[in-house]
Design goal:
The structure holds 2 protein chains of 2 kinds. By secondary structure, chain A is an alpha/beta fold. An 8-stranded mixed sheet of chain A has the order 3-2-4-1-5-6-7-8, with helices on both faces. The radius of gyration of chain A is 21 Å and the shape is elongated. In chain A, α1 runs antiparallel to α2. Chain B is of the alpha/beta class. In chain B, α2 runs antiparallel to α3 and α3 packs across α4. The mean pLDDT of chain B is 90. The chains are: A alpha/beta, B alpha/beta. The interface between A and B is large, with 51 and 48 residues. Bound molecules: guanosine-5'-triphosphate (2 copies) and magnesium ion (2 copies). The site of one magnesium ion (MG) has 6 residues of chain A, from α5.
Chain lengths: 293, 312
């Protein structure tokens, strides 16, 4: 893809041109990281460290520089990793939250298949009662992996359908309950309060729920992603990120900034619109894809 | 979250008082701060580089006036540069001499095409038109159902068509599009809004489908619907769509949030096509014609642009 090409061609420029790492090589790297959406503070922090190495003259040339850069990005992405806590008894409740159109419903559908493949019993909750045909959309996904879905009608209280779903998951001792929520901008306090209410609702039936809250973020997202992550974490206790649409030209560098500044790990990546297009996040592979052809 | 550019520049110009001219040396730090502000707003790096050079060229040699502080003077230069790039006037909508006028919606997945189709219908109706909607998104689950709900809630005519169990693919897409155009003619609808599936600019097959739709429908407007939260990649997707389709305008959605919307500059820069509308919410009436000056102040961190410009 183009971003990747520009980054790798820049890196190759660095490889070819520099025996010793000079300022102009670092400037090229800066451009490469900025055009991948890492943002200025994170890019500067990474480059300062590289510059430090260069000054101490322990970088020989481009190849070593690339390795160091990759190691640094990987380390930033790995730092927030935390063990996945399994609940003492089922169900495990997973919320999918995020701004409009990022891929929450699609990822809910993909996750159903993901956990089914692990032989877990899965229940879906259609808690987006706002957007046109959101319920019908999730219903198609439920059918694709042959799992059941708890729904109500458009315009109903999302906390109410959530309550029913948690109760049903408990009664059937389903292993996993995946909850699709309506897209909402983090700046809309009324809608963010609604998420808090949904958390409280889940807790009334299962005190530790939701066990996971995944913030679904589009890989094309720019610097606004940091604010999304900040405010969704405040309102709904985000535990990890799902980075979607990585099959496009965007590289999702904002995830590096989010890991560094907010200590949130990426859990999954979306790489297409099909049911199997979900991958567990691999920091090394992600760092590689940022830096290679 | 961000420090306002005005504050940053005031810091940069702390030492520049009284008379004199702006020089390479004394605007260096200011230009660095402008670069930071533009990057924080997601303006594409290459666009930022061009802008900074223009601003430098304009600023150096400018006399520091008494009416305006150096900060105000530089802000005004930046503001004018951004306005220049965005194009000053709000764009008009093209209508066909022989109806129906066809409007083709295009864009990446989840950018807001379906919602915007409904908004456009409402806007057209307010202007005395008789729009008809059709969705040729035969791929995404419940996509056609979604537009149907939108049509119902906005009381807009929709051509639903019948997929007749036909497999999702370009042939079906073309059939639905053709039928809808004929239906619009028969029903006396003067505009046909065609909602399409989200697609990546690098998806060869789906981009070819878009080209075929364009050929088939001969649309007056091809609107690229883009999410205002998009970062540096905005130039890539806009370029891909423009190269294949020659878009005629842009709709910038989700502007009701706090994204700075630097993508607007990037898209305008690479396509040369105007931003025609902005989406300000999920409801059908949350839709406005685009005003370049508003996004200019937004990119620069809001602030007191209006009062400043009155002084100038
Ligand atoms: N290419 C690609 N498209 C994706 C991916 N994930 C989701 N999409 C598409 O993105 C669009 C939006 O996905 P949805 O799942 O409806 O997003 P959402 O977050 O539920 O949207 P709202 O509920 O309206 O906020 C759809 O067209 C999906 O098919 C991905 O990983 N790659
Ligand atoms: N806040 C806000 N949300 C918007 C705006 N425009 C669209 N949305 C929301 O963004 C999400 C995606 O909108 P859609 O109209 O389904 O997007 P699309 O481009 O048709 O998506 P696909 O067909 O899946 O590619 C929905 O949740 C919409 O309600 C806007 O201006 N502001
Ligand atoms: Mg959804
Ligand atoms: Mg759509």
């Amino acid at each position: 893809t183009r971003t990747r090409e520009s980054l790798s061609s820049r890196l190759e420029g660095v490889l070819a041109l520099t025996r010793t790492v000079d300022e102009s090589a670092l400037e090229d790297l800066e451009s490469a990281l900025l055009t991948s959406d890492l943002g200025l503070p994170t890019t500067t922090a990474i480059l300062d460290q590289l510059r430090d190495h260069a000054r101490r003259k322990d970088i020989d040339g481009g190849e070593e520089l690339r390795e160091l850069l990759k190691e640094q990005i990987q380390a930033i992405l790995e730092a927030p990793a935390r063990p996945i806590v399994e609940p003492a008894e089922p169900p495990k409740v997973i919320f999918l939250v995020g701004v409009n159109g990022t891929g929450k419903t699609t990822t809910t559908g993909k996750l159903a298949a993901w956990y089914r493949a692990e032989n877990k019993s899965v229940l879906l909750c259609a808690a987006d009662t706002f957007r046109a045909a959101a319920i019908e959309q999730l219903e198609v996904w439920a059918g694709r992996s042959g799992v059941e879905m708890i729904r109500s009608r458009q315009g109903a209280d999302p906390a109410a359908v959530l309550y029913d779903a948690v109760a049903a998951a408990k009664a059937r001792s389903a292993d996993i309950l995946v909850v699709d929520t309506a897209g909402r901008l983090h700046t809309k306090s009324g809608l963010m309060d609604e998420l808090e209410k949904m958390r409280r609702t889940a807790k009334r039936l299962i005190p530790e729920a939701p066990h996971e809250v995944l913030l679904v973020m589009d890989a094309t997202t720019g610097q606004n992603g940091l604010q999304q992550a900040r405010l969704f974490t405040e309102a709904s206790g985000v535990t990890g990120i799902v980075l979607t649409k990585l099959d496009g030209t965007a590289k999702g560098g904002i995830a590096v900034a989010i890991a560094r500044e907010l200590n949130l790990p990426v859990r999954f990546v979306g790489v297409g619109e099909k049911i199997g297009d979900l991958l567990e996040f691999d920091p090394a592979a992600f760092a590689d894809s940022l830096l290679s052809k | 979250m961000f420090e306002n550019l005005t504050e940053k520049l005031q810091r940069a110009f702390k030492h520049l008082r009284g008379q004199g001219v702006l020089t390479e040396e004394n605007i260096g730090e200011a230009l660095r701060e402008i670069r930071v502000a533009l990057l924080e707003a997601d303006v594409n790096l290459n666009v930022v580089k061009d802008l900074i050079e223009h601003i430098r060229a304009k600023a150096v040699g400018t006399e520091v006036m008494t009416a305006l502080s150096p900060t105000e003077q530089v802000i005004k230069i930046v503001h004018d540069e951004l306005l220049e790039l965005l194009g000053k006037d709000t764009a008009r909508f093209k209508f066909a001499s022989r109806p129906p006028t066809v409007i083709l919606m295009a864009g990446l997945q989840g950018s807001g095409k379906t919602t915007t189709s409904g908004k456009l219908a409402v806007w057209l109706k307010k202007g005395g038109h008789r729009p008809m909607l059709v969705s040729v998104d035969v791929y995404r689950p419940a996509a056609r159902e979604q537009l149907k709900v939108v049509a119902k809630s906005t009381e807009t005519r929709i051509y639903e068509g019948d997929t007749k169990g036909e497999a999702a693919g370009t042939a079906l897409v073309e059939r639905l599009a053709k039928e809808a155009k004929r239906e619009a003619m028969i029903m006396g609808c003067d505009t046909l809004i065609v909602d399409t599936a989200g697609r990546l600019g690098i998806d060869e097959e789906l981009m070819q489908e878009m080209e075929r739709l364009k050929k088939l429908l001969d649309p007056q407007e091809i609107l690229f619907v883009a999410d205002s939260m998009t970062g540096q990649d905005a130039v890539n997707s806009a370029q891909d769509f423009h190269r294949r389709l020659s878009i005629t305008g842009v709709v910038l959605t989700k502007m009701d949030g706090d994204a700075r919307g630097g993508a607007a500059l990037s898209i305008r820069h690479v396509t040369g096509q105007p931003i025609k509308f902005i989406g300000m919410g999920e409801k059908p009436d949350a839709f406005e014609p685009f005003h370049p000056d508003r996004i200019t102040s937004r990119i620069l961190g809001h602030g007191d642009m209006a009062t400043l410009l009155e002084k100038a």
